[in-house]
Specification:
Elements (H helix, E strand, L loop, with lengths): L3 E6 L3 H16 L3 E2 L8 E6 L4 H13 L1 H6 L4 E6 L5 H10 L5 E3 L7 H11 L3 E3 L21 E5 L1 E2 L10 H5 L3 E2 L2 H11 L6 E5 L14 H9 L6 E5 L8 H9 L6 E3 L7 H6 L6 H14 L4 E8 L6 H14 L3 E6 L17 H24 L5 E9 L7 E5 L4 E5 L4 H4 L4 E8 L4 E5 L3
Parallel strand pairs: 1-2, 1-3, 3-4, 4-5, 5-6, 7-10, 10-11, 12-13, 13-14, 17-19
Antiparallel strand pairs: 8-9, 15-16, 15-18, 16-17, 18-19
Helix pairs in contact: 8-9, 12-13
The structure holds 5'-deoxyadenosine (5AD) and iron/sulfur cluster.
The site of 5'-deoxyadenosine (5AD) has 12 residues, from strand 13.
């Protein structure tokens, strides 16, 4: 009987893609995927440490494996991702969670098969964490992709920005760009497997620059030239590095989706400075204007943190104000969470929880009503949607995304299998805050 694996993934799309690579490594060792992490022979927990609740969830999950490991000494539990890049976390795992067999970092995923084999051979606990690995690459990986028709593709690793609240530069190391030719070859190799959409991933895609001097705009143009690829997306953009050349790609590259995720974090110049973001609100608004003048139907989403240390009522009003000025299509809103080792965690003027929650609720109300209003404009119109799956709530409903990344749940008289992996036309019949509803009208 073949051995089984499961991977539990927390956090961002980089983590999701790392999990796809880990799945590929396990399958090349002969393991087969199983749906239940408690019934597998090997379970990997791929962790996130961007906010504190991710921490808590992770340690809670570890606790649940104690019994499994006790009942089955052959069961292997591995932990990877951003959490173990922090020495205090590895110490805590060693002290309190002795049933964790393998711990490895974000920058040495390719070592996992060796660590697993060594653990199976010797029974020893394996730990391997590397900081700032100059050789980090995934060029020989064969990921098991979560989606058949769209692929996550890393273009950079790590981050050099050191926003004062953020743990990522410490857990993912310094920024490194993959060569344009390697990225394009990877994407070309995906087309015969049915991939028509790529999501180019980096903590700050706009600072992409490879050894040959290619910029992010050069990369988009090169991907746009790849036959068989129909949609190009990317995330995340940093307002301080976004270039006019890149913005122009919305005009010149027909495959580039009319959508951008442009985190603003705060609308207050004072707070943006304390966050070390290197732009102010007027510069941010000028970028939005430029994007909309080049690409009038572009959809814009953002990330916003409330309750950053020192944020006063006026600062928060400025955040509400910028949100109303930009009128975002959607937003991820977060309460500031102090991360040990980051500068902001040591700032003295931390904001009380009650104030954070009150501001958070007000912000969410504003963002949701803008999203709802913006979505009303879609009603009665026809959009191209690429179906991605069957709705979780209803087996007769297919869900997919518009070019602008709007989630559409729609019905069709054709079988879902027939529609997957190609653009279909959908008439929008109902607009909600977070999704649209419609019927397929392709001929
Ligand atoms: N507290 C709250 N939100 C954070 N983010 C990053 N670090 C923190 C933190 N310490 C948010 C930012 C970022 C998104 C991925 O997570 O908004 O853009
Ligand atoms: Fe974190 Fe800032 Fe880097 Fe984004 S750009 S990963 S928020 S340090």
């Amino acid at each position: 009987m073949s051995r089984k694996y499961n991977i539990i993934t927390y956090g961002c799309q980089m983590n999701e893609h790392d999990s796809e690579n880990i799945a590929g490594l396990l399958e090349s060792m002969g393991y087969e995927h199983c749906d239940d992490p408690y019934k597998a022979d090997v379970t990997v927990i791929n962790t996130c440490s961007v906010r504190e609740n991710a921490d808590k969830r992770f340690f809670g999950t570890l606790g649940q494996f104690k019994k499994i490991r006790k009942n089955d000494p052959n069961f292997v539990l591995a932990v990877c991702g951003c959490m173990p890049q922090q020495p205090r976390v590895v110490e805590e795992i060693n002290k309190r969670f002795s049933w964790v067999d393998i711990v490895f970092g974000t920058q040495n995923i390719s070592e996992f098969p060796d660590l697993l084999e060594e653990r199976l051979r010797t029974g020893r606990r394996m730990r391997s964490i590397i900081d700032n690995n100059p050789d980090i690459n995934e060029d020989d990986m064969k990921p098991v992709r979560m989606h058949r028709h769209k692929a996550l593709v890393n273009i950079t690793y790590g981050c050099n920005n050191f926003c004062t609240y953020c743990i990522v530069p410490y857990t993912r190391g310094r920024e490194k760009s993959r060569p344009l030719s390697v990225i394009c070859n990877e994407i070309k190799s995906l087309v015969p497997d049915g991939v028509i959409e790529v999501m180019l991933l980096g903590q700050n895609v706009d600072s992409y620059r490879d050894m040959a001097g290619n910029s992010f705009a050069d990369l988009i143009r090169a991907v746009n030239d790849i036959d068989g690829i129909e949609r190009i997306r990317f995330m995340t953009s940093h307002p301080k590095d976004i270039s006019d050349d890149m913005i122009e790609c919305f005009n010149t590259c027909p495959k580039l989706c009319h959508n951008i995720h442009l985190p603003v974090q705060s609308g207050s110049d004072r707070i943006l400075k304390r966050m070390n973001r290197h732009y102010d609100r007027s510069q941010y608004l000028a970028i939005v204007d430029k994007l909309r003048s080049v690409c009038p139907d572009i959809t814009i989403s953002t990330d916003i943190i409330v309750g950053f240390p020192g944020e006063n009522d006026e600062d928060f009003e400025e955040t509400l104000d910028i949100a109303k000025k930009v009128r975002y299509d959607s937003a991820f809103t977060f309460i500031y969470s102090p991360r040990e080792g980051t500068p902001a965690a040591k700032f003295e003027d931390q904001i009380p929880d009650s104030v954070c929650h009150e501001r958070f609720d007000r912000l969410v109300d504003v963002m949701n009503s803008i999203s709802y209003e913006k979505n009303q404009e879609y009603k009665g119109k026809i959009y191209e949607v690429i179906p991605e799956g069957i709705s979780e709530k209803d087996a007769h409903t297919i869900s997919g995304r518009t070019d602008g990344f709007k989630l559409v749940n729609f019905t069709s008289d054709k079988s879902p299998e027939k529609l997957m992996g190609r653009k279909v036309k959908v008439m929008i019949t109902e607009s909600k805050t977070f999704s649209l509803e419609g019927v397929e009208v392709s001929d």
